[in-house]
């Protein structure tokens, strides 16, 4: 069993998830089977009940676990499919312990945080570690917070058992205050002391900063953190997260980790990733403007791109592979959208919940449909497209989704039968239609042209679906049901064949796009947007 614990110090938002993913990628390149556990110190049982404005996107795994957005980074960087075993939250751990106690699983013991809660964490780590060569465990939050102490305590106990097979990498922040003009190491020294107080002695320090750590700064950190002279690395601010593995590779962080874990090191071929990174800064002749109409990207003065991170990454990856520069135009569904829409060469409506911003989104779809602007609707984006079609093509003026309007005469999007009781019982957590489902494609569709497969598997997260009562009527009016569940009961993809690219999917393709294998739907959407702008014939 080989474990790497990753912690963060000084400030939050250091990109621990990106560092963990980058380390994972390098170790995978060395032929190791790498996996992850993200430890989230909150009481929520999963990320599914959290507002994305607060916490970023909810990432869905194949087996339907609603994970923190770091799950998306792990999957994209090292090209694996995660499951519920790759994450834990404090709420989940306590829930298990309490359920065990109610089930008399502790032989009459007084059940306490130590050992029972701590041991539950340890047993989950050990279980996940059995399925891979190296398990990377990212401890959420920042060292010194009350909330995450129990995870360090679990690590301390594991370290006694595993000795050299357990490695701790501490990621810290080194500020360069303008008024001083020098990189300061004191916050790092103090965050290492906080680790030490918990019985954790880091083996490697990664210093996140605006600049590279120079020799003087490295020496200071080496002395105060008590690590090997070659165990301090830099993670310099960069314009793309995908360059972080390159930074680590150039500093031979992989060698240091493998040496410490007593695993073989050899030169690796990193050219595929290097080439991908080259595409990030290339000067492209062409550019496309893609409008994303959402409501989770505005938080006072801050733009919360994190709420849609997988959509954004999928777009970037597909733009680069299609040799085009991507501009994203963020359009708030509650603002007056029409002005900005005119600048868009392609329009996306991503997933969402509740009625806020719905009318603005419907207007945006109308604009895309009538002006032949490529449209990709993701989950809620497909449902909105159906409502727009109902109102403006089928003339069902009051059509809506049952989610937004319980009284509507025409609920063209209706609640899934198995969801009715769940909502009645206030059973909201982890109870949507979640995870991977098969969808059968119609051969005459853009979707089939994109995927080039009869059947696909995509990940879902929704409670509502297309209302089959309207299928024949809408089909007659020009809507194509391009993808159905194998029993044909559920509409998974709608298209409007008269339009150059009008695709709405009930699933979330953004969760499956990877840097070296862009998602076919996103790639074709970008291609259609290029064609719209430059007039190329498909
Ligand atoms: N709110 C919609 C539903 O529950 C769409 C969900 C989503 O976009 N992920 O069906």
What this model shows, in words?
The chain contains 19 helices and 23 strands. The strands form five sheets. The chain has a nine-stranded mixed β-sheet with strand order 13-10-14-15-23-22-21-18-19, with helices on both faces. Strands 5-2-6-1-7-8-9 form a seven-stranded parallel β-sheet, sandwiched between helices. A three-stranded mixed β-sheet has the order 16-17-20, with helices on one face. Helix 1 packs parallel to helix 3 and helix 5 (113-129) packs across helix 6 (149-162). The longest helix is centred in the N-terminal third of the chain and has 17 residues, at 113-129. By secondary structure, it is an alpha/beta fold. The chain is globular and about 75 Å long. It folds into two domains: 2-44 and 73-78 and 131-277, P-loop containing nucleotide triphosphate hydrolases (Rossmann fold), CATH 3.40.50; 282-533, Rossmann fold (3-Layer(aba) Sandwich). It binds glutamine. Residues 351-353, 379-380, 403, 461-464 line the site of glutamine.
